[in-house]
Amino acid sequence: MSRAGMAPMTKVEVVVAGTDAPHVQELFTQAGVTGYTAVSNVSGLGHGGYHEGRLLFNDQSALSLLITVAPEEKLDALLAGLRTLFERRSGVMFVSDVYVSRPEYFRS
Amino acid sequence: MSRAGMAPMTKVEVVVAGTDAPHVQELFTQAGVTGYTAVSNVSGLGHGGYHEGRLLFNDQSALSLLITVAPEEKLDALLAGLRTLFERRSGVMFVSDVYVSRPEYFRS
Amino acid sequence: MSRAGMAPMTKVEVVVAGTDAPHVQELFTQAGVTGYTAVSNVSGLGHGGYHEGRLLFNDQSALSLLITVAPEEKLDALLAGLRTLFERRSGVMFVSDVYVSRPEYFRS
User: Which among C42, C95, C96 is the nearest to A37, CB-wise?
Assistant: First the structure.
């Protein structure tokens, strides 16, 4: 079984304006995640709108894609922080299932 | 429950030659997706070959990775458009399950 | 059914120091994967530590994100190679389920 010894975790991907990336990284840290990966200078269009209905992003604006993986016990704090951010700032988040080796590195 | 209030959607990731990225963006729009993220200047090798057996990509060629998330009702049109593209152009697509908050932004 | 004709495969995402990316690409090739995508100049922090407890990455170090998709029959060799690499080198890998069209291109 290929995934023997791997542990289920949750991947959270966030796309925000590049200027908001430090805020997301701070939220990650506050939620206790032990690491993240950031892809900067990403472009994007849309995802619909913010709660007043204005466009989230304009095409070709400088966005950042931030990726982190968290164990179940850190997920509530992480998602709550991101939801609060998205009440004020444009962005999207995608949550999905992943398996990792060495799960202790995500729990420290 | 961490995913309370989140809605299941489908993430579609497409890797194509950078010169074909505008075509993919157009397909996204035609399928009614409300947004996407594009990572340009990605490199890659392979994924096997196109139907005549030629290589999909050469190593280090300038590729684009385009990511979108769609609700079920837009998925058929989206995947049909991409399949038609891949009959003529090199590329791969990966389809996976994600959860999003604020699902209404993906349905507008 | 949107995913009719699509085949389940496994996506493996690896984040390593940019200088280790060629080693990962070599592991991919040895495991027989038919393609991969590489995003270079990614930044990152953490994911905890390596087995002596030192930090995996320092913030803003130049990392690479490598993405491949493999059928079940190639997965054991792929994950075994990566686990061996991570005994000596810093990095993380995330394993998840995806669906692909044209599965024959991932099996050649």
Answer: C42
* pTM of the full structure: 0.88
Chain C hits for B39, CB-CB cut-off 8 Å, are 39
Task: Please state the ipTM of this predicted complex.
Answer: 0.85
Are B96 and C101 inside 8 Å of each other by CB? no
The span from the CA of A67 to the CA of A33, in Å, is 11
Of B57, B76, B92, the CB nearest to C2: B76
* Residue whose entry in the numeric block shows the structure tokens 């599965």: C103
Tokens of C76: 């054991």
Residues in A closer than 8 angstroms to C97, CB to CB, are 97
Q: Tell me the shortest Cα–Cα distance from B52 to chain A, in angstroms.
A: 32
Identify all chain A residues contacting C56, using CB atoms and an 8 Å cutoff: 35, 105
Q: Which residue has the higher pLDDT, C5 or A76?
A: A76
pLDDT tens sequence for chain B (108 residues): 467 789 999 999 999 988 899 999 999 999 999 889 999 878 887 654 333 333 445 544 588 999 999 999 999 999 999 999 998 888 899 999 999 988 887 887
